[in-house]
User: Fold this.
Amino acid sequence: MATVTKADIVNSIADKIGLTRVETKVIVEGVFSAIMDSLAEGNRIELRGFGVYSVKSRKSRMARNPRTGAPVALEKRYVPLFKASPEFQQRVNKDLKKGRKKAEVKA
Assistant:
């Protein structure tokens, strides 16, 4: 599997909609920034057909340093979560299965 970068996303969108890469980069960064700002405020973001972004609270607890075994106190923290929509999950599952079948046929 390949890694897709923000630049790859910008290039793909720019090619599809006909804007320059600079204009598209501003839009993509604006969307990412809006998502992060909204989550930082504790909001839930629902994008129909894509998924839901939310924030979960993790309690403070004692953990251990895996290298030394020494106890480490972890403070209460918030973790961003993403849950894909059923449509999103079906598309990924279907497309990856197709890709694997093609790879298996070629081998």
Remarks:
- The chain has three helices and five strands.
- The chain has two domains: 1-43, 44-107.
- The longest strand covers residues 51-58.
